[in-house]
Amino acid sequence: MKIVALSEVPHHATQITDWLWQAFGDGTSREFYHSIVRSSLNGADFPVTFVALDGDIPLGTVGFWRCDLISRQDLAPWVAALFVEESARGKGLSKALQQHVIDFAQQRGHDKLWLWSTFGGYYERFGWQYQCDALEFPDVRVKVYSRDL
DSSP label at 39? Predict the structure, then answer.
């Protein structure tokens, strides 16, 4: 298994878009996720999408985003849109994807990362610290976590 930037394997962009839309797109159009994925292909600092591959088969994805929570634009950067294909779950891939973004952020001089989740008890296992509750647009209460790098 290897983790690479989506820009290295752009032929997987449609699959990543579909995963994100299906996993996180409640009330949001597929086009919204397509625009994020497409933006990550242009080589800018943000967003960056990573893909975990077994050979050339995508198993999961994670993003490195400037902002993933409109109500907390004062916080940056973010681990975002972490998704692992159901058949690949329970094998440490989520941890590997998180660590990949942590390493990537450190290499770029960041000293802290943020993420949010609608549930608690998962990210704490990977060293994330609960910071506060916040609102995901328009009115979903979420938990905000940080991790010093």
Answer: H
